[in-house]
Write the structure tokens for this entry.
Amino acid sequence: MKEFNYIIKRILQMIPVLLVVTVVIFAGMRLIPGSPAITMLGDHATPQAVEEMNEKLGLNEPLIVQYFLFLRQVLTFDFGNSITLNAPVWDLFKEKAVVTLTLTVMTGLFTLVISFLFGYIGGISRNKVVTKTVDTAALIFISIPEFWIGIQLMMIFGLKLGLFPVGGWGTTWGEHLHSMVLPAIAGGLGTSALMIRNIEEEILKIRRQDYVDFAYSKGLKKSVVRNRYILKNVMVSTITLFSMRIVYMFAGSVVIETVFALPGLGNLLMQAILSRDYSLVQGLVYIFAVIVLVMNLLTDISYSFINPRIKLE
Amino acid sequence: MEYILSVKNLKTDFVDGDQVVHAVDDVSFDIREGETFGLIGESGCGKSATCRSLIGLLKENGTVSGGKVIYKGQDITHLRFGEMQKIRGHEIGMIFQEPMTTLNPVVKIGVQLTESLPDTMNKGEKRKRAEELLRMVGISDAAQRLEAYPHELSGGMRQRAMIAIALAGEPKLLLADEPTTALDVTIQDQILKLLQRLKRDLNMSMILVTHDLGVAAQVCDHIAVMYAGRIVEKADVHTLFHKPRNPYTYSLMCSLPSMVKKGQRLEPIEGMPPNLKEMPAGCAFAPRCRYCEKICAEKTPELEEIGKGHYTRCHLWKKLEHVEGIVEREG
Ligand SMILES: Nc1ncnc2c1ncn2[C@@H]1O[C@H](COP(=O)(O)OP(=O)(O)OP(=O)(O)O)[C@@H](O)[C@H]1O
Ligand code: SF4
Ligand SMILES: [Mg+2]
């Protein structure tokens, strides 16, 4: 019951945040120079044609009216049609969301596996060379931008070795997953490096705790102490960072999708912005915002499952 | 094989920055089967370091650099990990000093209890045994407590749970490192009584670490008094409290209200134990000792047997020969 109240409270708290988001999106769109009508009709369009287009798009209404029209769309979750693609925004979103979702999940999985594997090795190893190597490698990857890693991966494994497609996401699920490998690595390496450092530090800290000594004093096997004592506590203290980064990965898909020409939400958003497709941009950004907020809520709820010391209140 | 545990010239060092600290220095004692052996002394004198050394659980910067620990005739000082795990928990168990940090915060009490039970038991049997252990340490709603996380228990409950967990492997020797200091007075008494009862019922031997002489007088059979990493006096409890022959032991007694006979003045020990990083030459207690003479600052006293099983580390112990019977021992 307490949990239920908590969730309701959190959802209610989202409302003002989302209102602010609508204002920011709306204002942001109008501040970008260039007009949708001219972008659509080309530079040589007659003023009359432009005027007709503006009328059709509702851009001749006062700004305040335009804003409330947008707000009504938001409230009904019906974002109208994309002007340039001639399809409902919601349908476009659903179509592209699969790609972005797959990318985010794969990036997240890659990050989890890599960071726990190497963070654990680096943290648990008593060999200084091992720890130093893992540490240095992690430090390097933290400072390299994703798009650069993406381009390098594409050149080496895509172009030179021909192991992975260099763009697009194919037609079957097999092709989909195959084409996601390089993007997932590119999008996940930075976060992995960050988490490796974090996990290493946590392990060093946890290894010194009395409860680990107590565990050994009970005569437990090394594997039990490592899994149930060290790893479990590391997970609890790392889940916060990871969930923050998952949100970041979702939002950061714009960059990776552009580099790898993946037909996802990021790509769609870029296209929409370039073509001044007001309704599409507004709708997409708003949905992004809702997703990010919901993800934050979900991670907060998941903490309370993973970390028994946290209560939802 | 008279002794269950023999500690011979144990030395433990910690690396602290670029210095080496001798936290345990040439410590020897023997524990008879079934007895309670007291390790007493002020904070920082090496009691915990001694206990941890016995089962090889020093923090990463510590090593046992000399001496031997012999358990039931077997030298366990530098055992391989696998061999040591057979001793830990099942032969020698340990209750750690700080109940608030000794339980795994993200694992239920029940799991922490059952994990050291033998694999020959099935799940149901383990659960039953776990409940039994909790009831044994005085936790009444055992079934519910098995499902609790450490943070849901009070300090006293955690201490009890820790004792139950340490006893799950049915150790023959229990190292109890200040099992009561972290608790408030009424609970201290309960835990102490509990430990005495368990020791008797389970036929264990016990090392009881404490800085409370009253507690030591009540429950111990033999006592070693430590100061700055060394044993300064060692005897059976009767001898120690009736014929203290070391100024440090005597000062400890005089500083305790419950220890002093009526009419005698209460005198806290002035000053602090020396910093182990800058140990003075000669006797470590010299700066605080009221019997101190020239020789004390020049020569380090050796531990010397002055009566049967009564050892003291003091050049001038004869000065204390008149001292006797300052303690009223209860029970
Ligand atoms: N990990 C460590 N690193 C450096 N020095 C240490 C370490 N552990 C203990 N020491 C030093 O060793 C000495 C003995 O410490 P120990 O914990 O054994 O004392 P204690 O007698 O148990 O005291 P207390 O009553 O406070 O528990 C102390 O002076 C302490 O500074
Ligand atoms: S040797 Fe000297 S200083 Fe040390 S305890 Fe004895 S009398 Fe005191
Ligand atoms: Mg201690």
Remarks:
- Chain A has a mean pLDDT of 87.
